[in-house]
Design goal:
With about 160 residues, the chain is of the alpha+beta class. It is built from 1 helix and 8 strands; from the N terminus they run αββββββββ. The radius of gyration is 33 Å and the shape is rod-shaped.
Length: about 160
């Protein structure tokens, strides 16, 4: 083989080798670009979800037209009866004592006309306030909050 053809063959082989090694690098760059785009899309979706959640929270700052007819306390169970039929969405209950400290409260049951709570460490003779978020009358458009209070009666002697 002549020197010129050898040089040409070596040049061709080196070009082929560079071309085959460059393809994976380009593919990696493309996959990282795609991954970055997907990550941006996920972040945008999370931002949208956060904004929707914030809207729900602000909607619950509106006072609902729900009226309480009676609050019954039996040991650590509290039953709140409503006037009219109600609906719930993402319900949260906060019970506070006279000092403004939150009490541990759990929703046991909720129906169209009442809600049953379990509140630990209720003391006799004390007054407690209850805030129910995510409640509305059936005919209302938006969910809001309801505030009421109750007093645990002392035993008669």
């Amino acid at each position: 083989m002549r020197k010129s053809s050898k040089k040409l063959l070596v040049a061709l082989l080196s070009v082929c080798m560079v071309a085959t090694t460059a393809v994976p690098v380009l593919a990696e760059e493309e996959t990282t670009t795609v991954a970055v785009k997907q990550e941006k899309q996920v972040k945008q979706k999370n931002v949208v979800k956060a904004k929707k959640a914030e809207k729900k929270k602000t909607a619950k700052k509106r006072k609902a037209k729900v009226k309480v007819t009676k609050v019954t306390v039996n040991k650590n169970k509290v039953i709140i009866k409503f006037r009219g039929k109600v609906s719930y969405q993402d319900v949260a209950v906060v019970v506070k004592n006279e000092d403004g400290q939150e009490m541990e409260a759990k929703i046991l049951k909720k129906t169209k006309s009442q809600m049953k709570l379990k509140v630990n460490r209720l003391e006799k003779g004390k007054t407690y306030s209850v805030t129910v978020n995510g409640i509305k009358l059936k005919k209302e458009k938006e969910f809001g909050y309801l505030k009421t209070s109750f007093k645990v009666k002392k035993k008669k002697k």
